[in-house]
């Protein structure tokens, strides 16, 4: 075991305690994903930009296991299952490109080639300045709006090479691209809008042109899951 220690601090400690409080003490293991996410966010915040801090090491996993009363290996099993938990340093902007069948059929391979050429890295690598990492992952559950990528906490969907590279360029400039469908579709409705059941109230509520990037979902930052 490493001689280093890990503990949650400041706002991350408060968030860890808030998540633990959601569950009865004997069920506190249910907070494991939230704590793993918080651990890598705390490391990133302490490391600073370009330092590859958004990841979880063995020391943090052991500390989380102790907090949750779990065997260390159980925490490792969860951390290694979810690609959102990084077990090695990654760039400030971790581009997780879905390469599973629906996204592949809709152009994921050309997206990967375009990003590799644009950033000068191959899949699995990080740019020299530590800003971007490109990883290929399995289905992220947004197949209806394929092809898509997850970059840190945000999904970008209905991508083309041009729209994805524009998103990357905005991130490189410190801007915040609008997440969600990049062709303006609401949620998972058909391209071009609904074709059936157009009369009467929509189960999703009325279309709101002033709504957020996901149509009827409210504009602004989504509530954090942790
Ligand atoms: S196949 Fe890409 S999100 Fe499901």
State the order of secondary-structure elements, H for helix, E for strand.
HHHHEHHEEEHE
Domain unit count: 2
Write down the oligomeric state. Answer: single chain
Spatial strand arrangement across the major sheet = 2-1-3-4-5
Largest sheet: 5 strands, mixed
Percent helix range: 25-40%
Q: What is the number of helical segments per DSSP (H or I, 4+ residues)?
A: 7
**What do we call the CATH homologous superfamily of the largest domain?**
Glutaredoxin
CATH architecture of the largest domain: 3-Layer(aba) Sandwich
Bound molecules: FE2/S2 (inorganic) cluster
CATH class (first level) name of the largest domain: Alpha Beta
Protein name: NAD(P)H-dependent oxidoreductase subunit E
GO molecular function, one term: metal ion binding
Family: Belongs to the complex I 24 kDa subunit family.
Cofactor: [2Fe-2S] cluster
Commentary on this structure:
- The chain has 226 residues and is α/β, with parallel strands linked by helices.
- The protein has two domains: 10-81, Arc Repressor Mutant, subunit A (Orthogonal Bundle), CATH 1.10.10; 93-181, Glutaredoxin.
- Helices cover 34% and strands 9% of the residues.
- The protein contains seven helices and five strands.
- It has helices at 10-20, 32-47, 58-68, 72-81, 101-105, 108-119, 161-172; strands at residues 93-98, 132-137, 149-151, 154-157, 180-181.
- The chain has a five-stranded mixed β-sheet, covered by helices on one side.
- The model is unreliable at 211-216 (pLDDT under 50).
- The protein binds FE2/S2 (inorganic) cluster.
- Residues 98, 100, 102-103, 139-143, 146, 148 line the site of FE2/S2 (inorganic) cluster.
């Amino acid at each position: 075991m490493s001689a280093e220690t890990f503990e949650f601090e400041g706002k991350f400690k408060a968030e860890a305690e808030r998540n633990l409080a959601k569950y009865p003490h004997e069920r506190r293991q249910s907070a494991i994903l939230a704590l793993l996410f918080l651990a890598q966010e705390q490391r990133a915040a302490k490391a600073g930009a370009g330092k590859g801090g958004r990841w979880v090491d063995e020391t943090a996993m052991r500390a989380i296991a102790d907090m949750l009363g779990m065997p260390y290996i159980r925490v490792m099993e969860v951390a290694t299952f979810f690609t959102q938990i990084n077990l090695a340093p990654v760039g400030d902007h971790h581009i997780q490109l879905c390469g599973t069948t629906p996204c592949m059929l809709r152009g994921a391979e050309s997206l990967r080639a375009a990003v590799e050429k644009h950033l000068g890295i191959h899949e699995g690598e990080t740019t020299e300045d530590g800003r971007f990492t490109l990883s290929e992952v399995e289905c992220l559950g947004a197949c209806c709006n394929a092809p898509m990528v997850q970059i840190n906490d945000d999904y970008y969907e209905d991508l083309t090479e041009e729209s994805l590279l524009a998103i990357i360029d905005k991130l490189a400039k410190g801007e915040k691209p609008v997440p969600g469908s990049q062709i303006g579709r609401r949620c998972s409705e058909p391209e071009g809008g609904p074709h059936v059941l157009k009369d009467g109230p929509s189960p999703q509520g009325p279309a709101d042109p002033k709504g957020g990037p996901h149509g009827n979902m409210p504009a602004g930052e989504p509530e954090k899951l942790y």
